[in-house]
Amino acid sequence: MNLLSRVARIWEYRGVMWILVKRDLRVRYARSVLGYLWTLIDPLAMTLVYWFVFDKIYGMKSETRSEGIPFVLFMVAGILAWNWFNMSVNETARALYAERLLVRSTNLPREMWVIRVVLSKGIEHLMSLPILIVFTTWFWAHGQVHLNIKLLLWIPALILELILCIGVGLVMAPVTALIDDFVRVVRIVLRMGFYFTPIVYSLQFLEEKRSSLHWLARVLEFNPLTAINDLYRQGMLTRATPDYHIWLIGLVVSLAWLVFGMWIFAKLEKPILKEI
């Protein structure tokens, strides 16, 4: 079965997909006292910790590292995007093994067990966006940030991250099902990946304030989350010309992950069924 046929079959079962997504969300909040509030508490706590460490302890003010945006607002945009990616990768890595009985016994496209994780985490990401909206509104009302029509770029940022998370997830799930130690490798890489993603600093900071790290800024352009974070922040920036080449690189790399993920999943599907 070629890749287009597999995509068509996934689309054919989209109704079942949404049932699985809703099931995941119900299970997540079923026994939680605070429920939805955890979706807000987790990224808010992360933001406050990093703000205290970098801004208050190290005294790295916003103008030197966040392109003129208040440091807290700059971090919120990056942390929310990172959380969706981080949770998607961690949970898709176990998606097939966790649902192994259903994966083996149903005729559903097996990619759906991965995609449904990304979609459920994407909905949680949308539910956490009020944090970004509140921070943005607060700083705008106090004249510390000027908003523009480029806030609409949040929409392509969401689409681009959805593509990226599905692509990476389709690689993580089959490899982890075959090599259990791969989960530990992924966790280590994700911890490193947080600091190699422009969340608590900008590429401009690396280029202008840390000239010795100019090469690192060029490398980080190939991290698709760099483009995604930039899209989220565009509506707040005063930068005259957006870095369109970073967006293009982010799009190409994300699509490459999606195609590669579909291909590797198809190649490993039969070995997976024997293993789980």
Automatic annotation (TrEMBL):
Cell inner membrane among keywords: yes
List GO BP terms, alphabetically. Answer: lipopolysaccharide transport
Q: What is this protein called?
A: Transport permease protein
Subcellular location(s): the record lists: Cell inner membrane; Cell membrane
Its topology with respect to the membrane?
Multi-pass membrane protein
Entry annotated with the keyword Transport = yes
User: Would you identify the family this protein belongs to, as annotated?
Assistant: Belongs to the ABC-2 integral membrane protein family.
**The organism of origin for this protein:** Rudaeicoccus suwonensis
Q: Mention any Pfam family matching this sequence.
A: ABC2_membrane
User: GO CC annotation: what is one?
Assistant: plasma membrane
Kindly give the InterPro entries that the UniProt entry links to this protein: ABC2_TM (IPR013525), ABC2_TM_bact-type (IPR047817)
Query: Its Gene Ontology molecular function terms?
Result: ABC-type transporter activity
Q: What keyword terms does UniProt attach to this protein? A: Cell inner membrane, Cell membrane, Membrane, Transmembrane, Transmembrane helix, Transport
Question: What residues does the ABC transmembrane type-2 domain cover?
Answer: 34-268
The record lists the membrane-crossing segments as 33-53, 68-85, 122-141, 153-176, 188-206, 244-266
- Entries under PROSITE patterns matching the protein: ABC_TM2
